[in-house]
């Protein structure tokens, strides 16, 4: 293998890595756009149906403390660690706790909604975001293909 061959090989490797990274970024952007569309659909449908909102609370990373937020919306999971606010933003409601958080509350920042909640977690349990939101709207009985209500957008 000559020095020229080595340079060409390294350049091909760099291009392949760049192509994989670009493809992964496009895939993530498409998934985030689809999840954002689902969340927007959920907020519109929950508002239309008059689904009651609640003042959202955050939990400490250690799971012990509960902290006030200024957010109003709907918890997406039973644990109360994921929620959608009335503005259509997805939030992970786990925060750094402490005395200041206990006194003044916390301001969790929105994050991109995942298409599959819990994917990659150690417990192996995951569920599609569409399923969680549809259950929340219909109490677990209305599917996204109901003919009497607008369906969740399909991706």
Q: Biggest β-sheet: count, sense, barrel?
A: 5 strands, mixed
What is the spatial order of strands in the main beta sheet? 4-3-2-1-5
Radius of gyration: 21 Å
Mean model confidence by pLDDT: 86
The secondary-structure class comes to alpha+beta
The SSE order reads HEEEEEHEEH
> Which shape, going by the Cα principal axes?
elongated
Residue fraction in strands:
15-25%
What is the overall number of helices? 3
- Helix share bin: 40-55%
Q: What is the terminal separation in angstroms?
A: 48 Å
Explain this structure.
This protein has three helices and seven strands, in the order αβββββαββα. By secondary structure, it is α+β, with helices and mostly antiparallel strands. The strands form two sheets. Strands 4-3-2-1-5 form a five-stranded mixed β-sheet. Strand 1 (54-60) and strand 2 (66-75) form a beta hairpin. It is elongated.
């Amino acid at each position: 293998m000559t020095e020229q061959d080595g340079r060409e090989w390294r350049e091909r490797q760099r291009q392949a890595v760049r192509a994989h990274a670009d493809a992964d970024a496009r895939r993530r952007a498409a998934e985030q756009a689809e999840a954002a569309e689902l969340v927007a659909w959920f907020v519109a449908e929950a508002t239309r149906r008059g689904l009651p909102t609640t003042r959202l609370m955050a939990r400490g990373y250690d799971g012990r403390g509960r902290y006030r937020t200024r957010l109003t919306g709907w918890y997406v999971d039973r644990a109360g660690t994921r929620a959608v606010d009335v503005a259509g933003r997805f939030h992970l409601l786990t925060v750094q706790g402490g005395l200041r958080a206990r006194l003044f509350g916390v301001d969790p920042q929105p994050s991109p909604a995942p298409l599959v909640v819990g994917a990659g977690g150690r417990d192996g349990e995951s569920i599609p975001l569409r399923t969680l939101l549809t259950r929340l709207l219909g109490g677990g009985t209305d599917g996204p293909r109901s003919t009497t209500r607008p369906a969740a957008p399909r991706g």
